[in-house]
Amino acid sequence: MAVTDAAIDKIKQMILSGELAPGDRLPKEADLAVRLGLSRNSLREAVRALALINVLDVRQGDGTYVTSLEPHLLLDTMSFVLDLHRDDTVIQFFEVRRILEPAATALAAEQMSEAEIEELRVILKALPDEPTVEELVANDLKFHHRIAQGSGNSVLCSFIESLSGPTTRARIWRGLTQEGAMAKTREQHTAIYDAIAARQPDVARSWATVHVAGVESWLRKALELD
Fold it and tell me: What is d(CA 18, CA 14) in angstroms, rounded to the nearest whole number?
């Protein structure tokens, strides 16, 4: 299990066991890190991840609290993390993405008009220099949607769109827990765009395969090590 995942799991267990209840304040960072056997950096990353999914509330100058939710709502909020580790059917969705998206990307390199390629460039450039995970995933979904539309095949586009929902949670969790995931996504999107703009379908197909397979590979390792 990755270090940040392990840190998240330890805090999660404190909540699920009732040791930390909704509304409770977490112990001081230094004390909690020693108690859980974590580095302070790993603890900070875990707190950041859990804050982004509204399990923890970080109050500047005050401390970090478990969100004041009813217990069943708290568990529902956390369920998307648990889903990734309990249900490996999401891997099958990524396997299908790995088959369909490279094909759509290659078609886009041949079929997209110059105006559509410009739209893709605008989407790519719209991502902030230091995006939040939510901004990154939203931009990722928009980027791939535009490419699927650009394939010129409405049936293929519909199939790809149907895969977005089941794989979004995994993409968010990867952005939260995998070091360098944001930079890698930006780099690969740029390579895909460059290949489409240069009308190089084989290169576009290859980069799209690398891009989707990277998330799939991360997810397989996360499930195996859980």
Answer: 6
**CA neighbor of 212 nearest in space, from 115, 70, 90:** 90
Q: Which pLDDT tens digit goes with each residue over 60-73?
A: 888 898 875 444 44
Inter-residue contact 175 to 182 (CB < 8 Å): yes
Encode pLDDT of 198-208 as tens digits.
999 999 999 99
- Please, what sign has the CA dihedral across residues 120, 125, 129, 131? negative
Residue boundaries of the structural domains of the chain: 3-78, 87-225
Q: How many helices (H) and strands (E) does the chain have?
A: 11, 2
Domain 3-78: top CATH class: mainly alpha
Q: What is the CATH class of 87-225? A: mainly alpha
Extract the tokens encoding 64: 């970090």
